[in-house]
C-alpha cells in the first residue's frame, strides 16, 4: 500500500553551509521548490546573511548537544563544508543527526572527482593522511552502521564557475589569456554549474521516499546508501576554450596556448603540495580527472539522474558568461 503524500515526502531540511559557494544555490533551489522548510545550521559567531524564508539555528561545535538540539525534527541534513573545515566536523554532524533522529544525509561529496571510482580514490588517497581529502568511503560506512540513518551521496563533478576561475583547475587563466591543455585537450569530463547543483539537491529531496508512481526508481528508497550522479555537460578543454572565444569575442591567436601531459602535471601537483604549496592540491586533483582513461566522464560510464530529476540541459556559453563574471571577484585565499 502506498504511503500518504504527507508521510512519503521530506518536509524539513537542514543545511550546513547555506551561504557558501554551492550551499547558497542549494538553499535558493530548495526555497523555490516550495516543498520544504529549510533550516540553516550556523556557527554562533557566523555573520552570514541568509535569504528570507530560511530558519537559522546557531550551534557551538564544542558543545555537541547544541548540534543535536538544532537537528531535532529535521528529515534530512545536507552537509557542505569548506576543504579547510576542522577534521572530524562531518562526523560530528552525522553523529548529532543520528541522535536527533534525522533519517537522510547528503554528505559532503560535491565538487570533485568521482568518489566511487576506485582508480581515482587510489590516486588521491595520499591526501587522506594529511587531512585535506575527506575519507568519503569511511564516512559512508559510518552512516550505514548507524541505525535508521541513510545517505545519498551526490557526485556532480567539478563546479564549472569555480574551476574556470582557477588556472590550476581547468588550466585556463582568464585574466592573462593563457591556457595549458592537458595532453591534447581532448579528454572529456563531466561537470556542473552551481545552479545545476542546487537544482539537483532540491529535485532529489522532492522525490517521494517510497515509490509513489509508475517509475519505481524515482524515489529515495531506491537511492538509499548509493552514490548518484548529475551534471550540466561533459566537455573537454578545447570545447571550454571555444566557448570562451565565443563569449569574449577573442580568437586563438589572442591567447598563449601550451600543452602539458596530464600525468606529468599530476606528479608536479603532488610535489608542490608536499612542499607546502596548497595550490598543488588543485593541480593534482584536476590533472588526475583529465587522464585519458575515461574515469572523468561519469555521464557516459555510469549514467546520471538528470532525467529522473527533470534537470535542464544547460548552454555552456551561458555558463561560461557566469564563470567569467565570477572570476572577476574570485579570491584564491583558500589555495594559499
Explained architecture:
- Strand 4, helix 3 and strand 5 form a beta-alpha-beta unit.
- The radius of gyration is 20 Å and the shape is globular.
- The longest helix is centred in the first third of the chain and has 13 residues, at 21-33.
- Mean pLDDT is 91; it is low at 129-134.
- Helix 1 crosses helix 7 and helix 8 (237-248) crosses helix 13 (316-327).
- 36% of the residues lie in helices and 16% in strands.
- With 336 residues, it is of the alpha/beta class.
- The chain has helices at 21-33, 64-71, 89-100, 118-124, 136-144, 160-164, 194-204, 237-248, 262-274, 279-289, 298-301, 306-309, 316-327; strands at 12-16, 37-43, 55-59, 76-79, 104-106, 150-155, 158-159, 172-173, 178-182, 189-192, 226-229, 233-235, 256-260.
* Residues in helix, %: 25-40%
The main pleated sheet reads as:
7 strands, parallel
**pLDDT below 50 for ≥5 consecutive residues: which ranges?**
129-134
- Global structural class: alpha/beta
- What is the count of helical runs? 13
The outline comes out as globular
- Biggest sheet, strands in spatial order? 3-2-1-4-5-6-11
The SSE string, one letter per element, is: EHEEHEHEHHEEHEEEHEEHEHHHHH
Estimated share of beta-strand residues:
15-25%
Mean pLDDT metric: 91
Number of strands: 13
Tell me the distance between the termini: 56 Å
Query: Over the alpha carbons, how many angstroms does the gyration radius reach?
Result: 20 Å
Amino acid at each position: 500500500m502506498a504511503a500518504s503524500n504527507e508521510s512519503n515526502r521530506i518536509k524539513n531540511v537542514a543545511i550546513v553551509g547555506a551561504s557558501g559557494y554551492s550551499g547558497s544555490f542549494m538553499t535558493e533551489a530548495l526555497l523555490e521548490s516550495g516543498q520544504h522548510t529549510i533550516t540553516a545550521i550556523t556557527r554562533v559567531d557566523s555573520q552570514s546573511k541568509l535569504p528570507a524564508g530560511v530558519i537559522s539555528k546557531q550551534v557551538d561545535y564544542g558543545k555537541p548537544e547544541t548540534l543535536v538540539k538544532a537537528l531535532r525534527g529535521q528529515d534530512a541534513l545536507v552537509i557542505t563544508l569548506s576543504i579547510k573545515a576542522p577534521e572530524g566536523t562531518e562526523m560530528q554532524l552525522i553523529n548529532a543527526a543520528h541522535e536527533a533522529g534525522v533519517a537522510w544525509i547528503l554528505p559532503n561529496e560535491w565538487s570533485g572527482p568521482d568518489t566511487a571510482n576506485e582508480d581515482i580514490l587510489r590516486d588521491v588517497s595520499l591526501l587522506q593522511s594529511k587531512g585535506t581529502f575527506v575519507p568519503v568511503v569511511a564516512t559512508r560506512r559510518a552512516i550505514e552502521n548507524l541505525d535508521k540513518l541513510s545517505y545519498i551521496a551526490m557526485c556532480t563533478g567539478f563546479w564549472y564557475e569555480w574551476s574556470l576561475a582557477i588556472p590550476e583547475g581547468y588550466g585556463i587563466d582568464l585574466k592573462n589569456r593563457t591556457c595549458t591543455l592537458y595532453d591534447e585537450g581532448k579528454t572529456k569530463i563531466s561537470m556542473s554549474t552551481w545552479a545545476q547543483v542546487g537544482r539537483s539537491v532540491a529535485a532529489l529531496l522532492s522525490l517521494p521516499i517510497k515509490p509513489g508512481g509508475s517509475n519505481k526508481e524515482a524515489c529515495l528508497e531506491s537511492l538509499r546508501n548509493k552514490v548518484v550522479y548529475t551534471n550540466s555537460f561533459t566537455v573537454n578543454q578545447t570545447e571550454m576554450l571555444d566557448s570562451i572565444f565565443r563569449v569574449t569575442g577573442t580568437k586563438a591567436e589572442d591567447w598563449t596556448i601550451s600543452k602539458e601531459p596530464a600525468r606529468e602535471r599530476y606528479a608536479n601537483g603532488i610535489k608542490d603540495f608536499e612542499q607546502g604549496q596548497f595550490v598543488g592540491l588543485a593541480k593534482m586533483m584536476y590533472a588526475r580527472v583529465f587522464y585519458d582513461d575515461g574515469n572523468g566522464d561519469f555521464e557516459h560510464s555510469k549514467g546520471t539522474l538528470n532525467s529522473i530529476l527533470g534537470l535542464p540541459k544547460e548552454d555552456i556559453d551561458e555558463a561560461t558568461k557566469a564563470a567569467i563574471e565570477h572570476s572577476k571577484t574570485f579570491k584564491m585565499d583558500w589555495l594559499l
